[in-house]
């Protein structure tokens, strides 16, 4: 009986707390789309030119602007969620973002700013790809070993940062940035060695990962890796909210002095957190190395394989407020933007970079709730009330 | 002092809070509270922690918007959207936690937030500091850095800041909580001087002695409502009754100690601070089960470091700490806790409490990883919640829901959470530093009683306190510390003047002689 009331209270409290976050995120998204629309109009010479006749022929100017913006945004929407294929493409783009976003979000809950998801993802992709193209293992086992190798490599890369911070007090931001450079340098170098370079090639590219080590393709671009990412989010949720180590992580993040005085080992918690974050970022690298591309096989390892997933992850974690559910949704949103951005480019001739601008604007507006609250008076009143009741603290 | 006779014309002069109501959700923090302050008077606002004093003042200072009622200055209704508006209307606040930039000089802090234009006129700022500090007799060096100044002087800077804003009404929010007895006396003089200059002063406190010393009028707030006005001559016992709504015995009812075997043995303990200076200097003492040993002394004489070294928060340079049969000199906090040490840290917000955690989580902060609260690496949320509900009722922690955040609690209730957490398990030793600092009278009585109960269970209790009343009320033996060394270990019935001299480093025998001499002199003068 008391169990159920506790649950009810908790859920109600969560909903009350989250409501404002949701509203602000939505408002930020709408504002970003508005600013994006203005950019589109200004950037298209023909549409912008029509605005010279705004007073004499308002219909022409507004009409062409509307056509431009609506074509672009409907292409974006269709490309992201408009068809089963679009949804599959969105899921494939979202999977690594979710994993890396969890890596940043988890560390953030322990008070650690993990800028190093990029390097951790690179190490994860290296290890997973190497197991994939080097070890002749039977199917299923091959995939499992490759995934585990990626997790372990990322965990070591992240764990080193935690260990340095715990033992020497080195700041994790500095160390992770340096580790990112080392990781990309390391990748560039191994791709020139016999262990990694594809036989007969002079450029830095690895052999192809066989299908025995690739995530099975389920439908179009949707592959098993997406569900692995969702599973990772569930695990992180359990770790943070339900596990003993998660209690320490949150306590150390909220007040390391009180955590230490209460007997928690702050240094050990830091190392464990960074190792776990590294493993999650490594999983993002695994997604890149083992996820089948449009043609059904994984893209071979190159210097640019993971892209900028580790940095995009920071924005995903920020947008998701470092909570697993939020990170999954933010990852899906950004995955959708990137899948839809391609459609927007081909249908409306909008440059792909505009989707990057949209992502940046969303984050900008989310990161500045005060700004959004000022722009949207309705939210403003709510915010004032929330901050007074301490819900904002 | 001659005060103007209030006639009809003058009645509206001053600050009027009329029927102020402030709610937080379903909780009514202020319920139709009326308060008036006239120029040239000190109005004491007395109440327990959580009674709504700070909320009321935050409404006045523009930090909160009232849900009902109005604020009038000289009969004109005013509304303050933020502290800036309140300041512009002549209301100044001396915060409990100073709002100063530590690495800035006094003069720089004075102009902080009101830099006029692009160029900072430091000369004018310094002149203002000098002029104001002379006028109100608040000596401060305008060039001194805040971090180099003692707490009492930092508070002076806060007062000067308010005065520089031309404040006609000054709110002092628990100003004495951070001061030494001497600094308190100095502050009292300053407040009287400000009153005589015609300022209206609101003095928020829960210390009855201070109220009686300085108040022109006293208003008592309890659970958000005004429960009475009192005259300055009202006795402490009566005031305490008004505050807590029942008769309060300020002394603690306790049986004589029945010390058992020695449980804590400290031998030759030496501790250095982070700068390498010796702060605990070759100290040896024992605490037996069933007795309370008080560490008395002026703050900053090594007591805090001694407590931190016992739990294992800071390393021990040399010496031994034995608790029952375990050697704890090199122990981590975790090992000390496992050995049965309970620890109430001096700075509860910093070391004992996590504001962004729920009350239930705070109540298991040092046991969350043991049964029944955890099993198989997973937390047992039901056990954690049930534990919190039990402790809330047992320790009278005032909150509607144990799943609320810790930061929603008032100081006294937060301290009850810390003490409840420590006392809810089997202890060999309780180390409590300033367990009643910033805690209201009703809660003090309760906390003291729980500490004595713990002693009677056979636990060794080491209590660090800078308040002599507390030492006298609780101690079975008193260890006086001065500059990291033991001046002496004496009985709790040692006269205050002797204890005071010992706290200044004078040995017991000499202190007794001097005290006797003083008494004789006093007799002659009379």
From TrEMBL, chain A:
Protein name in UniProt: Nucleoside ABC transporter membrane protein
Keyword Transport in annotation: no
Transmembrane segments: 21-43, 86-108, 115-133, 139-161, 173-196, 222-240, 271-291, 297-319, 326-344, 356-379
Membrane topology summary: Multi-pass membrane protein
One Gene Ontology cellular component annotation held by this UniProt entry: plasma membrane
Gene Ontology MF terms: transmembrane transporter activity
Predominant location: membrane
CDD domains to which the protein is assigned, alphabetical: TM_PBP1_transp_TpRbsC_like
Keywords: Cell membrane, Membrane, Transmembrane, Transmembrane helix
Organism superkingdom: Bacteria
Intracellular or extracellular location(s): Cell membrane
Coiled-coil features, chain-numbered ranges: none
Automatic annotation (TrEMBL), chain B:
Matches recorded under InterPro entries: AAA+_ATPase, ABC_carbohydrate_import_ATPase, ABC_transporter-like_ATP-bd, ABC_transporter-like_CS, P-loop_NTPase
The protein's name in its UniProt record: Guanosine ABC transporter (ATP-binding protein)
GO MF terms, alphabetically ordered: ATP binding; ATP hydrolysis activity
Membrane-spanning parts: none
GO cellular component assignments: plasma membrane
Subcellular location: Cell membrane
Pfam family, one: ABC_tran
Predominant cellular place of this UniProt entry's protein: membrane
Protein's organism: Micropruina glycogenica
Chain ranges of the ABC transporter domain: 15-248, 264-508
Membrane topology: Peripheral membrane protein
UniProt entry keywords in alphabetical sequence: ATP-binding, Cell membrane, Membrane, Nucleotide-binding, Repeat, Translocase, Transport
């Amino acid at each position: 009986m008391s169990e159920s009331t506790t649950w009810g209270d908790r859920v109600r409290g969560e909903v009350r707390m989250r409501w404002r976050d949701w509203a602000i995120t939505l408002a930020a998204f709408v504002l970003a789309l508005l600013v994006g629309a203005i950019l589109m109009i200004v950037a298209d010479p023909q549409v912008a030119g029509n605005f010279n006749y705004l007073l004499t022929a308002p219909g022409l100017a507004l009409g062409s602007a509307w056509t431009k913006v609506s074509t672009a945004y409907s292409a974006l929407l269709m490309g992201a969620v408009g068809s089963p294929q679009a949804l599959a493409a969105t899921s494939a783009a979202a999977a690594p973002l979710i994993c890396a976003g969890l890596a940043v979000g988890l560390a953030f809950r322990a008070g650690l700013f993990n800028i190093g998801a990029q390097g951790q993802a690179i190490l994860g992709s290296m290890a997973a790809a190497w197991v994939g193209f080097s070890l002749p293992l039977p199917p299923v086992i091959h995939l499992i070993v490759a995934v585990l190798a990626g997790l372990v490599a990322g965990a070591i890369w992240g764990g080193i940062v935690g260990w340095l911070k715990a033992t020497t007090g080195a700041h994790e931001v500095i160390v992770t940035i340096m580790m990112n450079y080392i990781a990309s340098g390391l990748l560039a170098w191994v791709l020139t060695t016999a262990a990694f370079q594809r036989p007969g090639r002079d450029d830095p590219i690895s052999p192809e990962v066989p299908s025995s080590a690739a995530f099975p393709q389920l439908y179009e671009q949707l592959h098993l890796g997406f569900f692995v990412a969702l599973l990772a989010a569930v695990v992180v949720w359990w770790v943070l909210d339900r596990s003993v180590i998660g209690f320490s992580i949150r306590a150390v993040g909220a007040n390391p002095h009180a955590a230490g005085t209460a007997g928690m080992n702050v240094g050990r918690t830091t190392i464990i957190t960074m190792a776990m974050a590294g493993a999650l970022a490594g999983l993002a690298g695994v997604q890149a190395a083992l996820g089948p591309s449009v043609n059904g096989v994984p893209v071979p390892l190159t210097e640019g394989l993971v892209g900028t997933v580790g940095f995009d992850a920071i924005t995903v974690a920020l947008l998701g407020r470092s909570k697993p559910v939020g990170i999954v949704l933010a990852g899906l949103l950004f995955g959708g933007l990137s899948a839809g951005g391609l459609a927007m480019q081909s249908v409306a001739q909008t440059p792909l970079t505009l989707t990057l601008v949209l992502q940046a604007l969303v984050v900008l507006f989310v990161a500045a709730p005060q700004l959004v609250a000022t722009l949207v008076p309705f939210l403003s009143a709510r915010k004032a009330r929330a901050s007074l009741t301490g819900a904002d603290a | 002092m001659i005060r103007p006779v209030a006639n009809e014309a003058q009645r509206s002069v001053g600050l009027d809070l009329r029927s102020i109501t402030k709610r937080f959700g379903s909780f009514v923090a202020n319920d139709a509270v009326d308060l008036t302050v006239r120029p040239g008077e000190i109005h004491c606002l007395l109440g327990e922690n959580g009674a709504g004093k700070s909320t009321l003042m935050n409404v006045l200072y523009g930090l909160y918007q009232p849900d009902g009622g109005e604020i009038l200055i000289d009969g004109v209704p005013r509304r303050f959207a933020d502290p800036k508006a309140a300041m512009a209307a002549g209301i100044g606040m001396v915060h409990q936690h100073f709002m100063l930039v530590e690495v800035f000089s006094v003069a720089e802090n004075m102009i902080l937030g009101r830099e006029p234009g692009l160029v900072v006129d430091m000369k004018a700022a310094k002149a203002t500091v000098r002029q104001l500090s002379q006028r109100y007799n608040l000596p401060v060096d305008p060039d001194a850095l805040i971090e180099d100044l003692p707490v009492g002087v930092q508070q002076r800077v806060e007062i000067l800041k308010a005065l520089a804003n031309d404040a006609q009404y000054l709110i002092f929010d628990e100003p004495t909580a951070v001061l030494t007895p001497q600094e308190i006396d100095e502050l009292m003089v300053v407040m009287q001087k400000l009153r005589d200059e015609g300022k209206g002063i609101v003095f928020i406190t829960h210390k009855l002695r201070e109220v009686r010393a300085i108040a022109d009028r006293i208003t008592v707030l309890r659970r958000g409502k005004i429960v009475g006005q009192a005259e300055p001559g009202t006795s402490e016992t009566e005031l305490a009754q008004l505050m807590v709504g029942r008769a309060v015995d300020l002394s603690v009812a306790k049986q004589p100690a029945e010390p058992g075997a020695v449980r804590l043995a400290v031998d030759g303990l030496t501790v250095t601070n982070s700068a390498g200076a010796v702060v605990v200097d070759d100290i040896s003492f024992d605490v037996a089960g069933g007795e309370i040993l008080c560490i008395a002394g002026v703050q900053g004489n090594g007591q805090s470091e001694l407590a931190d070294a016992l739990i294992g928060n800071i390393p021990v340079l040399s010496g031994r700490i034995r608790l029952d049969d375990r050697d704890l000199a090199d122990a981590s906090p975790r090992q000390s806790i496992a050995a049965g040490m309970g620890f109430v840290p001096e700075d509860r917000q910093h070391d004992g409490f996590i504001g962004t955690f729920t009350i239930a989580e705070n109540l298991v902060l040092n046991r969350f990883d043991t049964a029944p609260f955890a099993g198989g690496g997973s937390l047992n949320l039901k056990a954690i919640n049930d534990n919190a509900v039990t402790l809330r009722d047992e320790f009278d922690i005032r909150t509607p829901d144990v799943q609320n955040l810790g930061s929603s609690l008032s100081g006294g209730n937060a301290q009850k959470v810390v003490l409840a957490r420590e006392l809810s398990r089997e202890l060999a030793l309780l180390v409590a530093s300033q367990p009643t600092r910033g805690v209201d009278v009703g809660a003090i009585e309760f906390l003291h009683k729980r500490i004595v109960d713990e002693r009677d269970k056979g636990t060794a209790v080491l209590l660090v306190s800078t308040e002599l009343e507390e030492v006298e009320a609780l101690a079975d033996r008193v260890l006086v510390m001065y500059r990291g060394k033991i001046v002496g270990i004496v009985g709790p019935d040692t006269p205050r003047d002797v204890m005071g001299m010992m706290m200044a480093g004078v040995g017991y025998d000499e202190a007794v002689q001097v005290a006797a001499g003083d008494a004789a002199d006093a007799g002659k003068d009379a």
